[in-house]
Amino acid sequence: MNYSRSSALFAQAEKVIPGGVNSPVRAFKAVGGTPIFVKEAKGAYLYDEDGNKLIDYINSWGPMILGHAYEPVVHAVIEKAKKGTSFGMPTEIETQIAELAVSMVPNIDKIRFVNSGTEACMSAIRLARGFTGNDKIIKFAGCYHGHSDSFLIQAGSGAVTFGAPNSPGVTQGTAKDTLLAKYNNIENVKSVIHANKGEIACIIIEPVAGNMGCIPPKNGFLQSLRDLCDTYGILLIFDEVMTGFRLAKGGAQELYNVNADIVCFGKVIGGGLPVGAFAAREEIMNYLAPLGPIYQAGTLSGNPLAMAAGLAMLETLNNDTELFNRLAKKTEYLHKGFAEVLSENNISHTINRVGSMISIHFTEDQVIDFETSAKGNNETFKKFFHGMLQEGIYIAPSAFETWFITDALTYKDLDATIAAVKKVTSKF
Ligand SMILES: *Cc1c(COP(=O)(O)O)cnc(C)c1O
């Protein structure tokens, strides 16, 4: 396939946009080459500026769980736009989507809408800090909670040492309030808590990690976190920006039957428009302004177009009782197919999967946390990525990402994908 027009457009973009992109991972830095410019998309397919048709496994990094340009969402947005695109005043549709979200997700009474997953997570930790009166937060190495300062902390050596900023511009003062723990390692979490007793506001976690490949929580890990939080008066925040409305109607809370104190949303909840949200029980949410003292605001929060898209999306997810099963079955089908052809071709691999999230790791070892995920062979991944692209299949341009399965994918698409994996890896 030819990607020459995309390359030309990228060169033009680089002159006026840093790195040519408005979000770094789009830039293909991890795999080399130049990004593909999308012209349009429908259902399971992307159509790029060179006229190539690609099967899409990124789906805007998660939101398009029903496929691109899903008709009820498109219709809702168009009809709303005709009536004005922003007022900075309350609208009825905000209550409608809030009622629906609260009815679908366990253990939440109230929800507030923001404009991105980043904003949701950043507001959630402020709420946790204001509610508990404590400053410190625990996050897990390899988990991503958006790009606000408190979260841009890399794994340091030793779980109880202060995090070090991994981005210039994050102050030491901010970094020292972010404590790092190891995913799937409850003993490590305990030692971090013990070293900082009485100072911790919250533990924030991706209940299924999706930003170091897909990493499921070990049996009982989430419940053990819940128990620790109850024992020490710490709030448990589930960052369900990726898993919310994807793993089940009620997200990971429902799938694993573990309650969080605060839940963050993004991606699917906006149906492809910029939406995030955070939610909790009433006693916690009532700490927010204008009811309580914790300030949080947004000129475009609850924007009518965004709410219309999100409502149309959530209504479908709420009414289609077979959807999450269908998605899980397709993902399982891919998993089996990939495992078979990779074994046939003698490629060392580990495949992780939960619901409609799946990732291939080029390592024989189990992938259970950031360290084990980082052991995957990146050179193999690069070859794999570009090989798949030549076969017309678009996967994330980084080994640390999850593939997102959509309802628009047909079994014919899945078979074509498995065949491509076989062909591409036969040359390794
Ligand atoms: C994508 C993501 C975010 C950030 O959301 P944005 O909308 O990109 O700001 C936060 N947490 C998780 C788990 C995510 O996957």
**Which stretches are low in confidence, meaning pLDDT under 50 for 5 or more residues running?**
155-163
Number of strands: 16
Content of β-strand:
15-25%
The number of helical segments is: 14
- Helix/strand order: HEEEHHEHEEEHEHEHEHEEHHHEEHHEEH
Assembly form of the protein: single chain
What is the CATH architecture annotation of the largest domain? 3-Layer(aba) Sandwich
At the fourth level of CATH, the homologous superfamily of the largest domain is Type I PLP-dependent aspartate aminotransferase-like (Major domain)
Overall 3D form:
globular
- Given helix and strand content, the structural type is alpha/beta
Q: List the strand order in the largest sheet.
A: 4-12-11-10-9-5-8
- Global mean pLDDT: 95
What's the end-to-end separation, in Å? 20 Å
Give the CATH class of the largest domain. Alpha Beta
Mind summarizing the main beta sheet?
7 strands, mixed
Please bin the fraction of helical residues. Answer: 25-40%
Instruction: Give me the CATH fold name of the largest domain.
Output: Aspartate Aminotransferase, domain 2
Bound molecules: pyridoxal-5'-phosphate
The Cα radius of gyration reads 21 Å
Q: What can you see in these coordinates?
A:
The protein has helices spanning 4-16, 71-81, 92-104, 117-132, 172-175, 186-195, 221-232, 251-256, 282-285, 304-319, 323-344, 370-373, 378-390, 411-426, and strands at residues 38-42, 45-48, 53-56, 110-114, 136-140, 153-154, 164-165, 178-181, 200-205, 235-239, 262-265, 276-280, 350-354, 357-361, 393-394, 403-404. It folds into two domains: 4-69 and 322-425, Aspartate Aminotransferase, domain 1 (Alpha-Beta Complex), CATH 3.90.1150; 71-319, Aspartate Aminotransferase, domain 2 (3-Layer(aba) Sandwich). The model is unreliable at 155-163 (pLDDT under 50). The protein is globular, with a radius of gyration of 21 Å. The strands form four sheets. A seven-stranded mixed beta sheet has the order 4-12-11-10-9-5-8, with helices on both faces. A four-stranded mixed beta sheet has the order 1-2-3-15. A three-stranded antiparallel beta sheet has the order 13-14-16, with helices on one face. By secondary structure, it is an alpha/beta fold. The protein binds pyridoxal-5'-phosphate.
